[in-house]
From TrEMBL, chain A:
<feature type="transmembrane region" description="Helical">
    <location>
        <begin position="284"/>
        <end position="309"/>
    </location>
</feature>
<feature type="transmembrane region" description="Helical">
    <location>
        <begin position="205"/>
        <end position="236"/>
    </location>
</feature>
<feature type="transmembrane region" description="Helical">
    <location>
        <begin position="158"/>
        <end position="184"/>
    </location>
</feature>
<protein>
    <recommendedName>
        <fullName>FtsX-like permease family protein</fullName>
    </recommendedName>
</protein>
<feature type="transmembrane region" description="Helical">
    <location>
        <begin position="414"/>
        <end position="432"/>
    </location>
</feature>
<feature type="transmembrane region" description="Helical">
    <location>
        <begin position="242"/>
        <end position="263"/>
    </location>
</feature>
<feature type="transmembrane region" description="Helical">
    <location>
        <begin position="126"/>
        <end position="146"/>
    </location>
</feature>
<keyword id="KW-0472">Membrane</keyword>
<feature type="transmembrane region" description="Helical">
    <location>
        <begin position="21"/>
        <end position="45"/>
    </location>
</feature>
From TrEMBL, chain B:
<keyword id="KW-0813">Transport</keyword>
<dbReference type="InterPro" id="IPR003439">
    <property type="entry name" value="ABC_transporter-like_ATP-bd"/>
</dbReference>
<feature type="region of interest" description="Disordered">
    <location>
        <begin position="1"/>
        <end position="29"/>
    </location>
</feature>
<protein>
    <submittedName>
        <fullName>ABC transporter ATP-binding protein</fullName>
    </submittedName>
</protein>
<dbReference type="InterPro" id="IPR017911">
    <property type="entry name" value="MacB-like_ATP-bd"/>
</dbReference>
<dbReference type="InterPro" id="IPR015854">
    <property type="entry name" value="ABC_transpr_LolD-like"/>
</dbReference>
<dbReference type="InterPro" id="IPR017871">
    <property type="entry name" value="ABC_transporter-like_CS"/>
</dbReference>
<dbReference type="GO" id="GO:0022857">
    <property type="term" value="F:transmembrane transporter activity"/>
</dbReference>
<keyword id="KW-0067">ATP-binding</keyword>
Amino acid sequence: MRAVLALAPGLHRAGGKDTQLTTALGVAAFAVTTALTLSVVGGLLGFVGREAQPQTAFQAEWSDIYVVLAWTAVVLLGVPLLTLGGAAARLGLARRDARLATLRLLGVTPREVVGLTLVETSGQGLVGAALGVLLYGLLLPLWALVPFQGSSFAVGELWVGGTVVLIVLLAVPLLAAVSGAVSLRRVVVSPLGVARRQRPKGMSVIRLVVALVGIGTFIVISTALGSLGAAAFVFLVGSLGLAFATLNVVGPWVLGLLARIQLRRASTPARLLAARRLLDDPRAAWRVVGGLGLAGFVAGALAIVPSLAAASTDDADQQLLLTDLSTGALLTLVIAFVLAAVSAGVAQAASVLDRRREYGLQHLAGVPAELLDEVRRREVLGPLLFVVVGSTATSVLMFAPWLGLTGVSSPGGMVMLAVCLTGGVLLVLGAVESTRPLLRSVLRDPVVRAD
Amino acid sequence: MDHAPITPTTTPRSTTPPPVSAPPATAGPAMTARGLAKRFGTTTALAGVDVDLDGGRSLAVMGPSGSGKSTLLHCLAGILVPDAGTVTLRGREVGTLGERERSLLRRRHYGFVFQFGQLLSELPAIENIALPSMLLGANRRQATELAAQWMHSLGLAGMEQRRPGELSGGQAQRVAVARALITGPAVVFADEPTGALDQATGAEVMRVLTETTRAAGAALVVVTHDATVAGWCDESIEMRDGTVVDRGVLR
């Protein structure tokens, strides 16, 4: 085992420029995930601190609500953060699987293959987490500019503390290693698992059932909230997290359904290829668009906020609460959309590198680069629009018993939703387009042997 | 000297599979190369190579690793631009066309069979074959029907919906041959087409490749280091250090 693990750095270097780029993307994704996670947790701790030691009468009276709202933001952002972290751990999967499958053919045991993966992904996770802590440190002064409860936070109030930093530095590499090891099953089961790619297994309709149960649980709990009292907030936030997570379960299944419809209607090479790719691996497509789907869910939930904020009140405290609610909602949305764009960009870049040989040979055979661009755009745009509208509608439906339909029936809520979703779609498309130079560089470097 | 560039045809060209025993559909020079030279840094890959290709004939380019045979194929196919020399297709200079024109040329006038990996893993066999035809403007139904005819003629009937990963190496290469020929190319380039196959399967693929290309009237260039593979071709050239050291007519 030790002899094989000692090969890890050499094997990694042997991957060349692409592996280095994939590693850099993975590290960057882990860094963004860590920095934003710490920022969100820092915000929560800031409100908890003010609740424990209120400096003003307003803080003494209202801090408990702020803590609940901060927890809600943590839950809403938790899943996109985990999604990006998971995507980072799976970066360059095809390339790494092929490398490890070759080792399996050479007689390396499944345990040793898992060991190699753990070393590689946890290493990336650790470097990413360390950079993320630095990035969080750099962002702190920025977060401290945002006013809440009538005054800005001091940097010290938003600092999560050494213990949390230590936990993050341990947890991120651990999660990266687990995610990487889980993705290895095919190689471990059979060294030929990746050498001979076969028809992907379909996804069970159970995914839909799980999602409906998750969403239903939230609706039931939120409806019963009034009779259960304040303690129900814990259940409410928990079930919100559950319902939110189930979107990740049902998302790929729904995209598979969409792909079948698109395939039947595909009349051009670009449409045909985009539909086939989506059908081939809806999970990969979800990793690209899922972030925005989850952001759409957040937007749907927060569409109520402009209506609340617009409600004029003579009570200065209530007015401040409503203003802060808008600020918090905006902040949560901005973070969710940034996460979505980073997820999409990282996943697309990894996909270009994984398909390097395929793209190169297609181009050599005369397939125009513009067609490859169109396929990549179509591959994302269709699912993106579908997911954004679907997840926003789900969110509005889920929150209807609790918040009513004010969010989508008021002009303010509608405008906020439209602006957020349009901006989000453009942001993700921009992230996809940003990988165009990478594709061009792949095509400029054809599979040519100078012999 | 000005040459009219090879321009794309305005209507999609696609060919039904010819019977493999049919005589060449066309004759005469399809492609000519004169004085081709190419360097990579300080390495001379080609140093003044001449090639003549006739429609319906096949040429094996042989030589050890580093002899320049793949570079020659890439220069002939418009993948690389030679540093010196000319490549003409049906009398028109194509060696120095711009990147975009060379892409169009490859799509419309050439077919390719690589060692492996040219089939798109997400597409079933029939759609892999139909794709080049769709790229030239055929609608999906027409292209799929044509692809089905090619599959039938190459002994692949019943495998239409199989993914490349579900085909054997020989079957995948026959799909690649059909894909290369469906648009009726002037020249088919094959780079080590049997490199990933056992001898028996390789021989079967070469039989299909040479007979089908000949029947379609296309010229065929096969890069190989294997004399058995070269034996399926009509002519051969042997390369060393970027130059042709031997030429032979095999049949």
